[in-house]
Specification:
Length: about 550
């Protein structure tokens, strides 16, 4: 009987065929009674089916067992047969239920559904339930009986999969497994007997391979992961959750190892049976990569410290100049016009610096809350606007040479002038900050078709290759020998990226790091936006 043949039988014929196979198996092995227990994944249990009418005097619907417990659960999970030679001495709950049905000995065999392609080749195997053979009429169960029941049970599975005897369709079982495998966290389930019966590929980080399913967790978690076996031991004893965070060296995908931070959580699996005081169904181990979260938290802490410093510095300067001017007036010796103008110019510069930082923080706050930034779009003279930002930067850092290169005739650009100036100011500030030896900073404006590009080019220390892809990340700061001692929040470029993308544009960076290219270094940050403004969605 093939899977294809089964599909062309009507329901009654399918049920009769199942019974015929089961009766045949019982006769060949001299079994008194046969009970099927089929998986119902939605309920996390195996439910009993009486295929041959052997238990008409019993409410068979009450015969159930958790997928993770007992002989039934063990055979279902591992796909290996198990013999209970003396049911009277077995304390497991499902055997106790079978004992009430008259079981003296039990041979439990997995029912394996084999999916085949059009050429008859097996493409997958799925255990859909367990066949329980109760009591052999003569002698004891042996490997010959096991083989016969396994073969005929597998043949019956082709029919069971196509009848309403099977409460959950094969496709639902496959969907369940695909769901577990597709999860972005590692998941492993361990039975009350301590055997791993489910594990997705993410658990390879902890050393669990596909072939380890069915093994006891103490066989798997040894040497470097022995601590996890001890954690699971503790949960088995206390029935309480436990968790920890540890560093683990993993492959970064480029053939190199990197250290990442993982959270391991071990929780007891609670079932209805456990609530009734019959023990618990096992534990589930969840592995979550917390590296990005912890890095984010660390960057947040650094960010708060740096922002506090960057706000305090201009406030201190402003307060110093204003106090000095007030003291001079109180002493009857006010500064002359030139000195007063110099002092007030510094106050204005520091105020602008503080305002720029506050604006950046406000933008970040909106982005962090998932709030959209609204653009005030209007046509304006981009070249004139860039020149104004450059002059403002020149007045603050006059030791640099600033060059603006732009076409003589450049049409107006439709954009949010304040936001674009914020981007240019951030790029200029970065160019100054990462050019400790001074030099020339060039702002180059070019037009190509319906887009305009602004490039800020410096002669600074440059950026290491491994940091280039991270430059526009939230609160990211370059860590290298050449960048030590350079203060910054790691906020500016992140905001630049969002503001340019809001305009329907893109931003990027090219660099030659001083440590790798002694003959030449520096960075070029370049953004491009459409001349006519962002395209509105239809």
């Amino acid at each position: 009987m093939t899977d294809l043949d089964a599909q062309f039988l009507d329901r009654d014929k399918q049920v009769k065929a199942v019974r015929s196979l089961i009766v045949r198996a019982a006769n060949l092995t001299q079994v008194e009674r046969v009970l099927l227990m089929l998986a119902q994944h939605s309920e996390g249990r195996l439910v009993a089916i009486d295929p041959c009418g052997d238990f008409q005097d019993v409410d068979i619907s009450r015969i159930q067992a958790p997928l993770s417990q007992g002989v039934s659960g063990e055979v279902f999970r591992t796909g290996r047969s198990e013999l209970v030679a003396d049911a009277a001495d077995d304390t497991r709950e499902d055997i106790a239920m079978l004992r009430k049905l008259g079981a003296r000995s039990v041979l439990a065999v997995p029912i394996v559904y084999r999916k085949r392609d059009t050429e008859g080749d097996i493409v997958s195997e799925t255990t859909i339930g367990v066949l329980h053979a109760l009591n052999k009429r003569r002698g004891e169960f042996d490997t010959h009986d096991q083989q016969i029941l396994y073969i005929l049970g597998s043949q019956a599975s082709q029919l069971i999969a196509h009848t309403d005897l099977y409460p959950v369709a094969i496709r639902d079982m496959e969907q369940y497994r695909y769901t577990i495998e597709s999860m972005g966290v590692g998941v492993a389930a361990i039975s009350a007997e301590g055997r791993v019966y489910e594990a997705n590929s993410e658990m390879k980080v902890l050393g669990i391979q596909h072939q380890d399913v069915g093994k006891h967790y103490r066989e798997i978690f040894t040497k470097g992961t022995r601590f996890l076996a001890e954690m699971i031991d503790g949960v088995f004893r206390s029935k309480q959750s436990a968790g920890t965070e540890i560093p683990i060296h993993t492959d970064n995908g480029a053939g190199k190892e990197e250290q990442r931070t993982f959270r391991i959580q071990v929780d007891p699996i609670i079932t209805q049976a456990s609530r009734q005081g019959n023990g618990f169904a096992g534990v589930v181990v969840v592995l979550q990569d917390m590296t990005v979260v912890r890095e984010e938290e660390q960057m947040q802490d650094s960010f708060v410290s740096l922002v506090s410093h960057d706000l305090r510095t201009p406030l201190t300067v402003i307060q110093g100049f204003v106090d000095t001017m007030l003291m001079a007036i109180d002493d009857g010796m006010p500064f002359d016009e030139e000195m007063t103008k110099e002092f007030l110019t510094m106050v204005v510069h520091q105020s602008r610096r503080m305002l720029r930082l506050v604006n950046d923080v406000l933008v970040l706050a909106r982005l962090s809350k998932g709030l959209a930034l609204e653009l005030t779009l209007r046509p304006y003279d981009l070249k004139q606007s860039v020149n104004m930002v450059v002059e403002s930067q020149r007045s603050i850092n006059s030791e640099f040479e600033y060059v603006v290169e732009a076409p003589e005739s450049l049409p107006e650009v439709v954009a949010d002038q304040e936001r674009i100036e914020q981007v240019v100011a951030n790029l200029l500030s970065n160019a100054v900050k990462y050019s400790p030896e001074g030099g020339t900073i060039t702002v180059r404006i070019t037009r190509e078709g319906g887009a305009v590009t602004v490039a800020v080019i410096d002669q600074g220390v440059g950026i290491p290759d491994e940091a280039l892809k991270k430059m526009f990340g939230r609160l990211f700061r370059v860590e290298s020998d050449k960048h030590k001692g350079i203060k910054g929040t790691g906020l500016g470029l992140y905001l630049c990226k969002h503001l340019i993308e809001l305009h329907g544009g893109h931003i990027g960076v090219e660099s030659r790091y001083q440590g790798d290219h002694p003959e030449g270094h520096g960075s070029t940050f370049r953004f491009t936006i459409p001349m006519e403004g962002p395209q509105q969605n239809a």
